[in-house]
Amino acid sequence: MDICDLSPGYIRAIAPYQPGKPISELAREMGRDEADIIKLASNENPIGVSPLAQRAIERAIAGLARYPDGNGFELKQALSRRYGVAPERMVLGNGSNDVLELAARAFLTSDHEAIYAQHAFAVYPLVVQAMGAKGVEVPARDYGHDLAAMRGAVTARTRIVFIANPNNPTGTLARAPELEAFIAGLPPEVLVVLDEAYNEYLPEELRSDSIGWLARFPNLVLTRTFSKVYGLAGLRVGYAFAAPGVADLMNRVRQPFNVNSISLAAAAAALDDGEFVGKSYELNRKGMRQLVEGFGRLGVTFIPSHGNFVSFEVRDAAGVYRKLLEQGVIVRPIAAYGLPRHLRVTVGLESENARFLDALTRSLGK
Ligand SMILES: Cc1ncc(COP(=O)(O)O)c(C=O)c1O
Fold this sequence. Notes:
Elements lengths: L8 H4 L10 H8 L7 E2 L11 H11 L11 H11 L6 E4 L2 H12 L5 E5 L5 H8 L3 E5 L8 H6 L5 E7 L11 H9 L6 E5 L14 H4 L6 E6 L12 E4 L2 H9 L8 H11 L2 H25 L3 E2 L5 E5 L3 H10 L2 E2 L1 E2 L8 E5 L3 H14 L3
Parallel strand pairs: 1-11, 3-4, 3-5, 5-6, 6-7
Antiparallel strand pairs: 2-8, 7-8, 9-10, 10-13, 12-13
Helix pairs in contact: 3-11, 4-11, 5-6, 5-10, 12-14, 13-14
Bound molecules: pyridoxal-5'-phosphate.
């Protein structure tokens, strides 16, 4: 008897998440200097860590012998000051992946279904399946969420609908009025997990008043992260805003010290570093234009994106991915997202975007 056979079938059937290839791994594989490799594969912030966060990290080191504040008081206060949301409406996570999982753990059993869109963020099916619940993938429309079809997929068993806005890896955006009407039209016993990991890359006029919606929709869970515009992907901090009762349930299934003390301190400091966030936003806007112009010159089709990444179409995605790797450029294959002819590139520094475009030109034999 193999002990692994005793794990539930739905666990054994999980297809593991495929992260972007680390720089160190490619360096080992190719016998290449790490400094010679650029990684545009995981939607990270190319300008690094905010100086305010760096200082907070240095200060927090002195306290590492102690457990972190399991309730994240200071970070919740900082979020509360910024967004006007009460701390009892908050759940902190080891990245927003963690809070996505907490929502699933608090609300799903094997009797339930959860809905997400085709080409949506890969963690939704993972956390749903880990609970033994049934994942229902609704076909995308123009690569984005088909909200009417998602509404149509709701059954008496549905407990969660996941929406990534903007979505990764397609970069599509559901507009605020449609999204608000969608949430208002759902049965109150269906939780909407609205994942806004890339919210800070949206221009003001495209942002939803999702925080304002919390007061009207007790079934709304909003998730955000410090991994993107705040430049703290390696520290793993994310959070959810929800109704106090929902947040309480999610906090009950949370590990007591799921966010470490360095991460808590860094996130609180990063939140106040408006200069760094502004710089990151501007760099992304310019870099996106640079990539899009490059695709235009090369005649490469891409999916217009509202995030810090863009997915583009090539005839032989696996081959182009390999050729880019050979030139020291790591992007992300997204066949697992149902997009076998696309690759996703993260907006980098100007020099990185230029190097990627040069390498792509060579990879396409142009
Ligand atoms: C749509 C979306 N949600 C959530 C996350 C999770 O980010 P993190 O766990 O680093 O907060 C990502 C990361 O790429 C993402 O693309």
